[in-house]
Amino acid sequence: MKHLLSINDLSKAESIAILDTAQELARVSDGPMKKLPTLRGRTIVNLFAEDSTRTRISFEAAAKRLSADVINFSAKGSSISKGESLKDTAQTLQAMGADAVIIRHGASGAAQRLADSKWMSGAVINAGDGTHEHPSQALLDAFTIRKHLAKSGEDLTGIKVVIVGDVLHSRVARSNVLLLAKLGADVTLVAPPTLLPVGVESWPCKISYDFDDALVGADAVMMLRIQLERMSEMFFPNAREYSRYFGLNGDRVKSLKPTALVMHPGPMNRGLEITADAADGARSVIVEQVSNGVSVRMAILYMLLAGAPEGEIIGINREVGAL
Ligand code: NCD
């Protein structure tokens, strides 16, 4: 595999191999050295044409922990904000010898466009394209669920995940449904009908309009941000009503199983899709999702750049073991 553009690029075995590798690599992040020499001499560009905190910093930390050189390139402060095209930007990166580009872009399909082009020869990793996909987020979410609720090397068969909120504008939702279903989880999307995309019936999940009903027996509840920046019209009558029907609050958390996880990819609209007590409570793994993101992104970079044969990226055991 050369690029990571969509969860559809990964087989089930490759997805599990990434999670297993990330688990080994977490030992690097937790250890005193925090660095492996694997990608020494390689150049990785973070090309962010949309705002990001966690994803950009986490890819940067991941690349640095594998000893790559990292160039951060965001739309604000670069020639993209002067109207430079993706093609000219990509050719500039090629001229600088980028081995991989991690791209976030407002246009769905931008990462695919870059990968299909002859503008640059390196690996392309999709860090979020419009409302389409965000595969590394789905992998870190699956990693977090597996860490708490399943065993290493295993899939997520029988684990019930409820994903709630603005599915229409969320790339996280699509990637998560595809990956969690691939791993055998039982996924339910909960949203008002206005926040579900056309064609959602064909996704490998159930759909519910009743949050409390969907929460019965849930192992993990993943809240989605209401993406106000992508909304040009009103999709729900008012914020208070949205929170009442689709927000996660302390009472809903209390109704969960004792082992259930509360998740959110961040950034959160506290008080809208999630209350502070739910976000900061004992069941919340929201901060842990961020730290798991570094190990998972290390595993992705390792798989794409360290030249490991497909489906066999466990060679990292040897490197980590040698620490
Ligand atoms: C998500 C994104 O950018 O798609 N955030 C993230 O990557 N951590 C979700 C969001 O912005 O709501």
Automatic annotation (TrEMBL):
The keyword Transferase applies. Pathway: Pyrimidine metabolism; UMP biosynthesis via de novo pathway; (S)-dihydroorotate from bicarbonate: step 2/3. One of its GO terms (cellular component) is cytosol. L-aspartate binds at residues 82, 171, 225. SUPFAM superfamilies: Aspartate/ornithine carbamoyltransferase. The keyword Magnesium does not apply. Its EC number is 2.1.3.2. It is an enzyme of class 2 (transferase). Residues 2-146 form the Aspartate/ornithine carbamoyltransferase carbamoyl-P binding domain. It holds the Pfam family OTCace_N. Residues 158-304 form the Aspartate/ornithine carbamoyltransferase Asp/Orn-binding domain. GO terms for biological process: 'de novo' pyrimidine nucleobase biosynthetic process; 'de novo' UMP biosynthetic process; amino acid metabolic process. Heterododecamer (2C3:3R2) of six catalytic PyrB chains organized as two trimers (C3), and six regulatory PyrI chains organized as three dimers (R2). Catalyzes the condensation of carbamoyl phosphate and aspartate to form carbamoyl aspartate and inorganic phosphate, the committed step in the de novo pyrimidine nucleotide biosynthesis pathway. NCBIfam families: asp_carb_tr, PRK00856.1. This is Aspartate carbamoyltransferase. It comes from Candidatus Planktophila lacus. The gene is pyrB.
